[in-house]
Amino acid sequence: MQLGVCYYPEQWPRSMWANDAKRMVELGISHVRIAEFAWSRMEPRAHEYDWTWLDEAVSTLAGAGLKIVLGTPTASPPRWLIDAYPDILPLRADGTRWNFGSRRHYDVSSERYREECVRIVTAMARRYGKHPSVIAWQTDNELGCHDTIPSYSTAALTRFRTWLARRYETIDALNRAWGNVFWSMEYPSFDTIGLPNLTPTDANPIHLLDFRRFMSDEVASFHREQADVLREFAPGADVLHNFMGFFTTFDHYRFVENGAVDVAAWDSYPLARTEVIALPEEDKARYARTGHPDVSAFDHDRYRAIGAGRFWIMEQEAGPVNWAPWNPVPAPGMVRLWAYEAFAHGAELVSYFRWRQCPYAQEQMHSGLNLPDNQLSQGGLEVARAAQEIAASSVLSGLPPASRAKVALVFDYETQWMFEIQRHGKTFDYQTLAFDYYQALREMSLDVDIVSRNADFSQYSLVVVPSLAVMSDDLVRAIENSSAQWVFGPRSGSRTPEFSIPLTLPPGLLQSALPVRVLEAESLRPTLTPATSLHGVEGNAIHWREHLQPGAGTEVLARFDDGWPAVVSHGRVRYAGAWFDHALHRALLDDAARAAGLAIGTLPEGLRVRRRGDVTFAFNFGPDVVAAPAPANARFVLGTRELRTADLCAWLEA
Amino acid sequence: MQLGVCYYPEQWPRSMWANDAKRMVELGISHVRIAEFAWSRMEPRAHEYDWTWLDEAVSTLAGAGLKIVLGTPTASPPRWLIDAYPDILPLRADGTRWNFGSRRHYDVSSERYREECVRIVTAMARRYGKHPSVIAWQTDNELGCHDTIPSYSTAALTRFRTWLARRYETIDALNRAWGNVFWSMEYPSFDTIGLPNLTPTDANPIHLLDFRRFMSDEVASFHREQADVLREFAPGADVLHNFMGFFTTFDHYRFVENGAVDVAAWDSYPLARTEVIALPEEDKARYARTGHPDVSAFDHDRYRAIGAGRFWIMEQEAGPVNWAPWNPVPAPGMVRLWAYEAFAHGAELVSYFRWRQCPYAQEQMHSGLNLPDNQLSQGGLEVARAAQEIAASSVLSGLPPASRAKVALVFDYETQWMFEIQRHGKTFDYQTLAFDYYQALREMSLDVDIVSRNADFSQYSLVVVPSLAVMSDDLVRAIENSSAQWVFGPRSGSRTPEFSIPLTLPPGLLQSALPVRVLEAESLRPTLTPATSLHGVEGNAIHWREHLQPGAGTEVLARFDDGWPAVVSHGRVRYAGAWFDHALHRALLDDAARAAGLAIGTLPEGLRVRRRGDVTFAFNFGPDVVAAPAPANARFVLGTRELRTADLCAWLEA
Amino acid sequence: MQLGVCYYPEQWPRSMWANDAKRMVELGISHVRIAEFAWSRMEPRAHEYDWTWLDEAVSTLAGAGLKIVLGTPTASPPRWLIDAYPDILPLRADGTRWNFGSRRHYDVSSERYREECVRIVTAMARRYGKHPSVIAWQTDNELGCHDTIPSYSTAALTRFRTWLARRYETIDALNRAWGNVFWSMEYPSFDTIGLPNLTPTDANPIHLLDFRRFMSDEVASFHREQADVLREFAPGADVLHNFMGFFTTFDHYRFVENGAVDVAAWDSYPLARTEVIALPEEDKARYARTGHPDVSAFDHDRYRAIGAGRFWIMEQEAGPVNWAPWNPVPAPGMVRLWAYEAFAHGAELVSYFRWRQCPYAQEQMHSGLNLPDNQLSQGGLEVARAAQEIAASSVLSGLPPASRAKVALVFDYETQWMFEIQRHGKTFDYQTLAFDYYQALREMSLDVDIVSRNADFSQYSLVVVPSLAVMSDDLVRAIENSSAQWVFGPRSGSRTPEFSIPLTLPPGLLQSALPVRVLEAESLRPTLTPATSLHGVEGNAIHWREHLQPGAGTEVLARFDDGWPAVVSHGRVRYAGAWFDHALHRALLDDAARAAGLAIGTLPEGLRVRRRGDVTFAFNFGPDVVAAPAPANARFVLGTRELRTADLCAWLEA
After folding, report:
1. pTM passes above 0.90
2. CA B428 to chain centre
3. Is C266 a known ligand-binding residue?
């Protein structure tokens, strides 16, 4: 449980640096991230490096006792580099080229740019790789942000063709796998394949999917090229990248394969995230100043798995930000709360963005721990309080890593891509469905691990799969070999890896565990809401409904008004043939959790509970005063049972 | 009353073909359409034809006793052709070029592409033109779909200039006709005229209109070039094109001139159409699983005229489709009902799309008569029932062609274009207005012919003209020479063929039949709804209202609150000076129909009636059980008087 | 108080001209504007001028006794000029080039086009500059209309770099001022700076602001080049440009500097303007046929200042127009009312657009004083009445110029640009805020001058600054040196001229007059509405709220529920830390106006009052009959106390 901050010494007079470092330490901060975006200062002209300022910044911060995370500056190629190689600028789907003048103006597939990145990272790593205070390196910044991925450049096209040739080996194999006989889409050779943009109507879904898979691999290899340099020249340091919340443009599980990162770091902005994701309007209104209670937790639990247990908040919201449609000030207390929430979910470090609000340029309305006049902001004051509390509590400062939960929720990036490519109904969004299942579990006071479809499921009591487009034999075996209760949502097993419908009909391979055929599926306009009842809870399908034909031995747990099965089960496996409203999702998971023998709580609205080690934390995101569900003999290590809005407590069970 | 199906043998193993053919015949299917989109299989490489598979498919289907409709494959030029001639790809209004990778990626004005189309069609027609089972040919597929027309290519520009030079002869004549003195838009010569895209503000409306007229002619000549080949090499076969519903990009009356088609075929998708057209939200909700009761009938009645009495459903929805914002499963019974509805309106053939759902590529979520696992779908089962019913009834199987109705509704494509170019109010849409008039007539239990402004009106009792931008002397004479009641809607006669306001003011030439001047016209925001009362019905103008100054002998049938006339008449001619709400439209047409001596019924909501020969059909699109308006002594040949949702009946009057 | 009309003789047969002139004079019209847009007739081919028609038109109109305003034709470069120099066509932000075919298809930065404009204006001015009836010249037409400014051309880029080099002198100075160290945006030299379009995320706000400043200067210099020619060859005539309503693309105060115009003319279309601006829907509904009561007045009061007291309506709506989403007919009386409204606010001339509705081309649905068949329209009849009334009243025809009001409202174009660049909340719009303040003042029966931040404030009793992004030392001194009450709205003083946050925090320099620090600011989604109470009025903040920390001596006039100050004051200066709802704005200004000793009236909804000389005018824009607030002994020179909708009266106090 350590606190950090993001700092840009190049943006401030050198005369301020020493005092800044001193004040950071006094505030209780142990880690500081610097240098990302500073390419034009490290290398003001081609091959003319200037390390003097960075040497001084590193030594000043290290001298104050701070641990340093160095960011590579590749998210912002400098002007002289773009002038030398204009093809570095990425192309959009509509054929226009992005300009220099902000950030992320590079084509991830540009081989020239990749060479330049390796060059600057090598130079940095040679200089600072063995500095004892430089304990970690971050590559680039928020890969994929601002829809800069995919790029539709010639470089991307060339590499995509190579990627396809490697995957399919022959053009006949590709034409067969893609079903290109349809609409005469057959390609004579790999070098006649184009990118799937600007087609008069939908491109072939597998064309779109393979392009997304390719681009995901491009992002991973872009990082990997830098990571390889860092491994060589900074052998002891942690390598990481700062991922984003609710972000699915690339497959994070594949990104981190083969030790590409040591820790999964991500950037947490709960208020803005709550504003921009597809939540019901009443939730956005209710949680406008606290953030939705599950919006950060969802990614804490996701990135903990991605980091194989190790995760950091690289950037934590410290006050109002600048990039949502509306940007309110957080409720007093939230900046402190968010830190504890991350720790409760297992974070090693919570690093705030940023030390001081920058009065100029694009992020001038993005707050920091200090106002532009160098007074502590409201957020700064709350961080000071949290640091003091942690320092004062041996229980808090000595918490062990988060242990495995009893409930696993499978989140799958390819499923997101496939159902974006083929929403079928315009209100169908897989991540939103997964988030609704996750909320239901969290409202039941359950701790959840969010894991990949390839996880080890043997130790879980309940495995929830909100949907999984492609079922695999491995997963079927995992079901058989586990003793868990399994819940599958709609569209599970509905596609092959080549984006076809299984010839046995959906849910395809899952049929060996749960015999059922999906005869037809329908997307539902908001006025079409087939009614059903599950375990005494009345409710409706929304967005999506399937016509299920149960096979031998399959039980129908609920039926719709019109007679079609709503939920079926076979042994430990349940299948929901619709996207249900939230109350029905709760009923479905409640039933499965009880069957799994899990202890279920009922939390007041807006309250959430999370356990780490022996400590249970409770967080109040709602507007009302509520009581934390601590046992009578709980020993409070933080706060008390009564929780006002934006407050938290933590206890040991006696 | 024959049933057909669309089939793509190239998408399935040859081992399935014989069984497919056998099962089609067993199901009661007599016609099968094949080969459209299969260019890459007919000609895998330039000038290397491969007919073996198509020979086998034709002989297999013919051998089973099926009649074959062959589609030309020109809606999907293959990759090698695009690589050879990239200019075939069309340009959008914003200057970007569409890519290969779906379908319809060709510029209809490309002379190179037209040559290639003639070449492949000639090769097909030479091979199969005299095959006794190939009884019809379809050109291309859904011309104009996916907004691929107009194209803004150099080829289009060059041909547009030629078209203009032919129309106007001299540049001075064009400048005068277009009024190019306005804003100094005068052109020195035909070769300085551009396309009307990307202008800082509106282009000259006549510039836009002439471009639409030109593009409509381009579509027609593109078809005609193929039709000419087919006439030569397949002399006995019907030539057709599969048109679309609610589609007005080209003038279908001009398209079919001079025998360009033998039968008007169209593709009917009632649920998706109901979702995407401009209907009130409550109608979309009410009819989400049945389709709006008039949405298919409107096009049945339109294409029957376009086909001079002969029309087919080339593609009929067989279950949920994939291309609307939401795609529900039809109510059980609708797949059967839609077939009878088409027959009742005079269709010779109803051909379902498609035989079997294709598990891969773009249309994998588009259902067929069989599921991907080759079991009959719900739609397939309903088709089987309909086929059995027809076979069992000599009355049904022996129905004569549809006879002329007593009511004509004039639909005019140029009016659609002119009021799209100049909506004046953003909620003004001519086709929506025409559809509202059509609904009112159908709710009154009237059979309707939808005809062009050049039709023979001498036999009609009532002629309804929802609007007609340009009045002609011929039509004025037709009014004089008929004994019908005539109803004209707003904006009738408001423009000259050169898109100017008549100097006598609107309704221009109509003034000789009905003396009235439109002093001013206004478009109405939703909150502006001038009130009036017509024949005891209270209601409002919406969208549009005119200030009418009646001339000598013109009677005012209704006035608005503020004194302006709402409806005027002179002899047998009525003029509505506004877009009225639906109740007022009903009142207006009810009055005219009574004056015309027509028998008017009052149907329950959602019920529709249609007569063919001696048989009256009744269709229930609504959710409630209703009674069909059959006389007491009716002899039912299908069903009974009581109609559940999605059910129908048919009777002979004893 | 004179009446004019816009006339396009080239659009009509010469045989009509003399009669048109005669009828204008008979109607009471004294001024006629001609020749704008007629380049293709003045110069049909390069360097071949044809003045014969214009000579005849001028002599016909002058012969009838009309005063002529000549428009330069540069808003519509002819086709032959575009063919000769295609680079004249402007580029949009997305890189596409506008086409010929409407108007305003030129790049304001094109030096070639500027030369051509000087050439044609010189030719015109040499020919007509000394004609005694040509009493004024208008340059171009509605500069910036149709989003043609800014242009993103190479010419614009080249000139922008020169403009920047002049402003910043060295690239280091620019990099420092812009804060380009942020995200490595540093430029090696001026010729590497690009335009701020097509960046992956926001461009640097100062980059965007300087580009807007540059483009504003481009517009001004484009006009100035023509004005210089006119000064030389038409020495006695007034030079003007016809500005637009609610239009902020360029800085009108800078435009008119150094005598660039003699009179500020603007084009007033109240109904369409009411439809398109950001008004509450209920206001749009209520005032759909009258226009919002303040929508024209706001610009009358703005352009009166811009014209240093002299302003004209160059184009006044004469009936329904063609360019809003919906275009209703004005309520009977409004065409007359709008003329008097303009006169009451100080207009010298009200010139209607246009003499006769043109039956062809783009504006065929734009009404005029005559219908296309040459009968007077409803608007024409109302103008005749107004002309007769004025001629019959020596009081009305002898009114003096408008005198200075007691209330000043500061409107600032750069503030508009800065808050468009950085809305922070998507519902924040500065002009809308300024208009809400203006409405509140007008509802209180106050006459208002709208002035620039550099105005002379010494004579005002109340100065209202809805917001002013950049405070200056000059303005602080003006506060100190005045005796007025001052009201500042939110975000005042929140930025430096280089688009940075002041290091003392907002309101920056204003702190010397009113000690307060804005710690944080938040934009408010519609559901977040902090409550407060001011002078007994309960209400809410909307859109925007600040956290104010009052300094020594600063009084808190109102607090929000959560304790933050809502309004603070120090001496004669008030600061509102939020965008309030309208009732609170009224309460705020009411309090300040009382402190300023102003007489405040309470007007019925929809009624407005304006004084000119000794005459008070009252205008009823609302639907109800209301009583004008004339004293008992008022002497009415127009109308009576009872005002129906769309009516007005005027009186002298006895």
Report:
1. yes
2. 19
3. no
A492, A538: one domain: yes
Which structure tokens are listed for B480? 């004089």
Structure tokens at B21: 């053919």
Residue C136's identity, in one-letter code, is A
Catalytic residue among A36, A116, A275, A315: A315
A363 pLDDT more than 80: yes
Q: Report the neighbours of C using a cutoff of 3 or more CB pairs below 8 angstroms.
A: A, B
* Residue C142 bears catalytic tag: yes
Interface test with B, best of A91, A94, A160, A184 (most B CBs within 10 A): A184
* Residues on chain B touching C80 (C-beta within 8 angstroms): 188, 192
Q: How many CB atoms lie within 10 A of CB A227?
A: 23
B186 contacts on C by Cβ (under 8 Å): 40, 44, 78-79
Asked if the C-beta of B502 comes within 8 angstroms of chain C's C-beta atoms, the answer is yes
Residue C19 Cα to chain centre, angstroms: 35
Residue B471 sits at the vertex; the CA angle it makes with B470 and B477, to the nearest 5 degrees, is 160
pLDDT digits (tens, 9 = 90+) for A101-119: 999 999 999 999 999 999 9
d(CA C629, CA C632): 9
Looking at the domain assignment, is residue B591 inside a domain? yes
User: Which amino acid makes up residue C244?
Assistant: M
DSSP state of A188: S
Q: What CATH number is attached to the domain comprising B640?
A: 2.60.40.1180
Report residue B592 CA to chain centroid gap: 26
Number of domains in chain A: 2
- Do B562 and B491 share a structural domain? yes
- Give C506 to chain B, closest Cα distance, Å: 40
Residues of B recognised as catalytic: 142, 315
Alpha helices in A204-349 (DSSP H): 205-233, 252-255, 270-276, 281-286, 295-306, 334-344
Q: What ipTM, to 2 d.p.?
A: 0.97
Cβ separation of C524 and A328 shorter than 8 Å?
yes
Q: Which A-chain residues 531-550 have CB contacts (< 8 A) with chain B? A: 547
* Residue B651 marked as a ligand binder: no
Question: Measured between alpha carbons, how far is A73 from C575 in angstroms, rounded to an integer?
Answer: 43
Q: Structure tokens of A507?
A: 């849910």
Cβ within 8 Å, pair C501-A79:
no
B540 is in an annotated binding site: no
Specify the length of chain A in residues.
654
B180, B520, B544, best to mutate vs chain C, most C CBs in 10 Å: B520
Q: By the 8 A CB rule, do C225 and C193 touch?
A: no
pLDDT digit string, tens, across residues C556-590: 999 999 999 999 999 999 999 999 999 999 999 99
Position A258 in a domain: no
Query: Are residues B533 and B574 part of one domain?
Result: yes
Range(s) of the domain holding residue C554: 407-595
Name the nearest CA neighbour of A336 among A639, A25, A30.
A639
